[in-house]
Predict the 3D structure of the following.
Amino acid sequence: MDKVVLAYSGGLETSVCIHWLRYRKGLDVRTFSADLGQPLSAEELSRQALDLGAHGVFIRDLRQRFAEDFILPALMANAETETGIPLSVALSRPLITEELILIARSENCRYIAHGGSAKSNDQIRFQMTAAALAPDLRVLAPLREPELASRKSLINYAQRHSLPITPTPKTTYDEDQNIWGRLITGEAVENLAVEAPEELFSMTRNPAAAPSEGEEVVLGFDGGVPVTLNGKKMPFVELIEELNEVAGRNGVGRVDGLDTKIVGIKARYIAEAPAAKALLFAHRRLECAVLPAELVRVKRHIERLYTEVVHRGLWFSRLRRALQAFIDETQPPVTGKVRLRLRQGLVEPCGVESDYTLYDADLATHSERDAFDRSAAAGFVDVLALEHRLEGMRERLLQARIVRRRS
């Protein structure tokens, strides 16, 4: 009997996949679940998978590797989607697929499988990673089958086969959660004219109900790496988890996004990313203080390209590594402290300190201590305007020529 290892989340979709792979495809099914900070416990995932017919279960705590090897490089790249959603899902998929492949090798599996649907970004991310790391393995995607194409059809399948799961027809959304954020999709949020229901949120308090005074936090960076929270040094995973609590109770991190799927379809995503939004804000703020303006402009362009590359599942490509090399080169001076106020859904800057700042108060001031050499300004502006002056003279000649032709 051929073997397959399935990326298993514990939700309705991948639960149905276990049964379908075993009884429709006749495969020996193993499941792999990565602990990336989601609510389900390892024991619960193991029990569910075995009850559904899995022959073996693999669960690994990958929070540290996820934070250090995937989230951190993306934070240095300030990676967010076009509508401001941190890449919590896109960053997790290459790591999960890499682990799937390692298990497939150790278990002599012919296939790996995932729960991405025909329109999803995940199907592409899993497949692109597999193509890069294990081109000999076949990738199965049960949710591309017509009988499993909708949430209703998945519920019907589960009920028809008496699967030991309790899907409720009233639940009309899907969620994906890890330490970098939570993403919500599905029927519950498909009407763009309707505000997302409050019951969908679990990581963040409603900003209107959050304390009006908010809370101040101080984030310390060393070479672009967050290393302290309120003066306390801690591992990156712990810093993210604690900041999720602080920012979440102040309503920070909610995003109502309308982004484009890789297949070209516009889709609405509701996100909660308390720590991610605070860290991204602080990191950008510190960069503006320590990096030259031209480097910031170029880096912002690279960041957009980097985000698109990761979004499309190309984490293990040479292109992503090349972009990362540029980003890494910019980070050594990104060292210092950023003070933020987290208040009723807002992230407000309160101060920046760095030994490497390019801000010089004596040059920037409008007070009597101004150290700027004003005598240099006239010549500087004349040189700066030289090309535009020549172009302006040229345009006058062209306009005169056009007038003569018309007359």
About this structure: The CA atoms of residues 93 and 119 lie 16 Å apart. The longest strand covers residues 28-35. The chain has twelve helices and 14 strands.
